[in-house]
Amino acid sequence: MVDPLIATIMIIAGGVLVGVCVHFIPASATGAMAAATGIATGPSMLSAGAGLTGIYAAAYSIDSGLALVIVSGAVGSALMLLLTILCGNIMLAFGIGAPPVSGQTASGKSTFSGTKDIITGFEQEGYASPGTDGHGMPFQTAVSGGFGALMGGTGGALVFYAVYSITLPALSTENAVTLAGIVAAGVFLINSVLPAYVLVGKTEGMFDMKIRSIHRTFISCLVSSSLVACVIYAVSWLAVSGVVI
Amino acid sequence: MAAISLLLGTALASFLAFLAGIFEDSESNAGSASNPNSQVQLAPQIGNRHRYFNKAISGEPPANALWATTAATIAYLLTAHFGGDAFAVLVASIIGAAASTLLLCAYGVLSHISRIASMKNFEQTLYWDSLLIPLPLDAAFGFLTALMLTLLAFAAHSLLGNPFSVPLLAFFFGITIGTIGSSTGDIYYGAERLYQHYIFGSGIPISVQGDIDVKGEYGYRNSVDTPYFTMRFGGLVTGLAFGILIFLDAWSRLFIFAGVWTSVIVVSVLVLIILIFIYLLEVYTRKRYGRYTED
Amino acid sequence: MKEIHIHTLFGAALLSGIAGIFLIRYGISVGIVFLWLPFLSAANSVRGMAKYGLGTGNASIGYWGTAVGATSAFVASLPFSCGSTPLLYVAAVVTISLVIGLVTGVLADKVIRMRIPRIELNSAVIAASTALITAGFLLILGNNYCLYPFIYIVITLAVLHPYNASTGAGENQKRTLMLALVEACMTTLVIGIVAMLASGSEMPVSDDVAIVVVSACGLVIAVVAWYRLVKSDIYEIRWTGYSPAEH
């Protein structure tokens, strides 16, 4: 269990991590027509799915301390995202017949200039179907996605553990766990939609030029998470001190 | 005793998750849903009047979360009425899934009619049979998805020992399966089945979006013609993704060689193995397909 | 046709929601009828925000607004037990959700620079309306924590669906709001059924049966009215046929 003040700071940190992780996870809505690089869903829904899997995985270790909860949330989230990337690439390779290629890198406009994949050095130009902005998930986006999912899972587990600690004195254990889970999901969904407006529906992860707008997401999520954290702190202080209004 | 329930829980949960993935993808293709539905919505605007079931409820994660949570909540409340043992869980889950299927039918019918009502300028007609013929197929797949997810939530709570309550677990599973189904199965529907008259081997350029298949193998195509095609590949890969996820997550908890940190170590190793597989697949695809050529 | 202004609809929804919560708190469950107006105002604001074709989708706006409203209501329900005065509970819920909704709207406008007109107003309205609805449902269903995810997701879908389903060139506010009324009645019908199951007694409690009956009547009336609007807006309705040759 942690002190309520530290738990409030944990909620703020968790909310910010959740917001920032959306920039790292490659997603695009038009990927469903193999017309853009990235996982074929919207960025906010994808991060919500990955993060909620992390909270699910973290709940098994709720009695074993803060460090284990955070790490199991992070790796659970990363497992879900990488499996999704692998199966998406399988679908693309054998169902559509196109190799994974990063459209932004192919046109030379990614964060590090040049038309090669940063990590594997594969040439991207010429592999994309003409008229599309790339398709699938090349290796640099997969690594970026894994990193983003680690952050998102950590953030979700932090919020979950913090709300659980704050409400535990006032409720029975299983009620506190369920309330902590739904409040963590709510904070997750509030914070993962804000960066979706910065990204305008499509991003290729940390090697996309849109990573330069990350400060806007950081500030917005910081302010909204602080508000929510203060509300939770005030309400739980009222509940724990037995004030029934 | 604890080990037996964990083993049984792992096997049962992965099996149910695999089936749930297949059914979820088929349900989202029997009524055109989520991202590929933007193509079905776009088609009349460029002149392709169609006979698909334009079921635009929302993205797949919140929709699947609704079906799963409704079914699980009603099942959870009914289990106490029926006595609380395994048979009560089965019967209550079936009743809960049936109730959530009625909700699915209502939302689906309302979406199709109101989408077409907003397309007066493009002269898209509302054909009653293109709504009522796929509807039972869609409802059947939706019922099976909700049933599998409810039973999965019960298995995760009682056999695997997750402290969350059953409706909350169903909510999480609903959002996760919606995300996975939208990311894997929808690519096959959106880029292959809707655009079959474009040759295999490329993505769909932005310039031809909306030019979907309106005619099928014989006559005009409607949404019943979609699941039998996509289930052969898209549905199974979606089921594989979700099933392997639940299996690996539960299987990693069976090891106990390092105390409480065992499952984290096992999952980290698995994450690295999956990264290696992604790399190998990319190498294979690039070697086989090569650069884009016009033929 | 003239459009209903956001302020008018929100003001009416606020008064109606507060009246509904008071009625429910003092035992008259049929007061749930007064919760239908907040559904309309939330769906109207989702329409106001999503009309500008952002690239993020109506679904994201819907569940983001509901997350703000419902989380405020869930968190605020902690210290307030069923024996408390409803006025204080409602005031707390509405204030918290308005503040968070307004701040998020201001952030979206000034920091993220989304360039949607009146986004602060719309996001505050969605947050406050969904918070009112959640508070009303919590009073009906009692403090059973296992039902929270269900309340959250059923409100999310009812709020985001009307505009998402009516999207198109021929969309108008009257038909969208009538569809929102249909879905509000469907939602309260399902809540009534769950309340009957959650009450724990063998025979259904008469209050919950009253909710189900009233919602069913409302649903029938709303569907007939909505379908009349559809028939006047649609291009053509036929049982079956082939599309004319492509133009």
Give a description of the structure.
- The complex is a heterotrimer of chains A (245), B (295) and C (247).
- With 245 residues, chain A is mainly alpha-helical.
- In chain A, 62% of the residues lie in helices and 5% in strands.
- Chain B has helices at residues 2-30, 37-42, 60-82, 86-117, 128-132, 134-158, 166-183, 185-193, 227-251, 262-289; one strand spanning 126-127.
- Chain B is flat and about 60 Å long.
- The mean pLDDT of chain B is 89.
- Chain C is mostly helical.
- Helix content of chain C is 70%, strand content 1%.
- Classes of the chains: A mainly alpha (245), B mainly alpha (295), C mainly alpha (247).
- Chains A and B meet through helix 2, helix 3, helix 5 and helix 6 of A and helix 3, helix 7, helix 8, helix 9 and helix 10 of B.
Radius of gyration of chain B (Å): 21 Å
Q: Helical region count of chain B?
A: 10
Amino- and carboxy-terminal Cα gap of chain C: 31 Å
Rg calculated over all Cα atoms of chain C: 19 Å
SS-based class of chain C: mainly alpha
The number of distinct helices of chain C, counting runs of at least 4 residues, comes to: 8
The overall average pLDDT of chain C, rounded, is 85
User: What is the assembly state of the chains in this entry?
Assistant: heterotrimer
Number of strands of chain C: 1
**Overall number of strands of chain B:** 1
Main β-sheet description of chain B? none
**Strand portion of chain C, in percent?**
under 5%
Order of H and E elements of chain B: HHHHEHHHHHH
The residue ranges of chain C in which pLDDT falls below 50 over 5 or more consecutive positions are none
Nutshell version of this structure?
The complex is a heterotrimer of chains A (245), B (295) and C (247). By secondary structure, chain A is mainly alpha-helical.
Search tags:
heterotrimer; B: about 300 residues; mainly alpha; flat; C: about 250 residues; 8 helices; globular
Describe the SSE topology:
The complex is a heterotrimer of chains A (245), B (295) and C (247).
Chain A: H1 4-21, E1 27-28, E2 36-37, H2 43-59, H3 66-96, E3 101-102, H4 103-106, E4 133-136, H5 139-167, H6 173-199, E5 202-203, H7 214-240
Parallel strand pairs in A: 2-4
Antiparallel strand pairs in A: 1-5, 3-4
Helix pairs in contact in A: 1-5, 1-6, 1-7, 2-3, 2-5, 2-6, 3-5, 5-6, 6-7
Chain B: H1 2-30, H2 37-42, H3 60-82, H4 86-117, E1 126-127, H5 128-132, H6 134-158, H7 166-183, H8 185-193, H9 227-251, H10 262-289
Helix pairs in contact in B: 1-6, 1-7, 1-9, 3-4, 3-6, 3-7, 4-6, 6-7, 7-9, 8-9
Chain C: H1 6-25, H2 36-50, H3 58-76, H4 86-110, H5 119-141, H6 148-165, H7 173-198, H8 206-233, E1 237-238
